[in-house]
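assembly run, all chains below
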Amino acid sequence: MERLSLNQITTKRWSLAEAIEGCAASGVGWIAPWRDKVAEIGVEQAAKLLKQHGVRVSSLCRGGFFTGVTPDGSPVDGVADTREAIDEAAALGTDVLVLVVGGIANNDLAGSRQRVADALGELAPYALERGVRLGLEPLHPMQCAERSVLSTLDQALTLAEEHPAEAVGVVVDEFHVWWDPRVEESIAKAAGRILGFHVCDQLVPLTDTFLGRALPGDGPIDHRGLRACVEAAGYQGPIEVEIFNAELWAQPGDQVLRQVIDSYAEHVD
Amino acid sequence: MERLSLNQITTKRWSLAEAIEGCAASGVGWIAPWRDKVAEIGVEQAAKLLKQHGVRVSSLCRGGFFTGVTPDGSPVDGVADTREAIDEAAALGTDVLVLVVGGIANNDLAGSRQRVADALGELAPYALERGVRLGLEPLHPMQCAERSVLSTLDQALTLAEEHPAEAVGVVVDEFHVWWDPRVEESIAKAAGRILGFHVCDQLVPLTDTFLGRALPGDGPIDHRGLRACVEAAGYQGPIEVEIFNAELWAQPGDQVLRQVIDSYAEHVD
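ok done. output:
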């Protein structure tokens, strides 16, 4: 259980303080906070609560949106926002900032991918100076248009390799990559660049492109198989359980965390 | 316009006879019938109507489901069913049968992929004898669990290459492959094996994993770019417009076909 980390989105109803307390009370030593929840109490107070409860931060969620648009189409300066996120990560005591790179701007896939590469070039030195590594998380291809023109681990790795491993790496989230016929090979190639491993399952049938996730064991994903791959590639860090699921989100946080712990113990650990 | 083919699912409300008549009346020289619609009047009558109206068949939809389960979880003998589909394709005068290989059986992705490879080994000689080529159509990764453990063009090509090009090839459907960072490279590698090119667009936001398609031009897909790729790889055959979309399906067939012709002329041709 010592590697289990609660990605805060999983217990969406909990404030950051509640989530930190919940983890501490249940013996979960890691958490991955979301920035909107951090902002509710401020970074300093968040850092203080984390220290007080002895809960460490596996990663901060999230920077990115380098293509200039949010999923709902609003304009955003992803580079400026990610600079702030890098500072927040450092202040929270984690060296991993997860990046969701952004969807397609102006129906221009190639141009949007180029904007991502350009943004990384701007941000990598800034992150390196602050001891924070940028974790490129490829998202499922069904989220390409709205959220991420980065769709496979191979593609993320190619981008990351333009920069020092101390500055840019990749995050392996099962939900986004499990279907990929090249996933095992890509994980092996990512050795030395893997900054996080996120677990959850996929609902079948998959009817919702955003909320179609489930507790480990409730779908077709081979958790122990993928875990073996990331471990063979040298990753020994925390394992985040990150679940977007409307039914779980409707439940009280402690009830959700109990299910997270049980499913992790049964299907991942 | 001479390469435009109406994939029959696009005008879902039309019977096969109506679709053939609609194509003939609009100067569309090609159609891709679906087997359930063919079955309503029988293969012989279908072949007779096609001949009578001078409409040719670009491909028959579809065989497959080799993993033993349909999308709703019912058992199916995909190999036996596909043998029948091969005979039907030959009787309808087309040399292309599209295959949707089937989703994950028993939560075993690797085993399900193996069943697909095994089924192809059984069926390729049968298809070759009858002059029908099997067109492996990779489906979008969001349909991996329910419909197709074949998710990328690369993966389809690797499977196809186990067999003579006269027996097994691949079908490039934009909706399923547009997001793939390797799509251009994969299409180039598929030279000599491309048996069909299907066009449509993707709705944004993508809220439905099955019906999220749109007329060409109503989404982020670069139709002329992908068409240039398949043509550079030597494909000069019919181009099917295949759209799963609830709003279109609610409209009368002739109204849909008019929009298909207009959007094809503006964005694909």
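The mean pLDDT of chain A is 98.

Chain A has eleven helices and eleven strands.

not gonna interpret more than that til we talk
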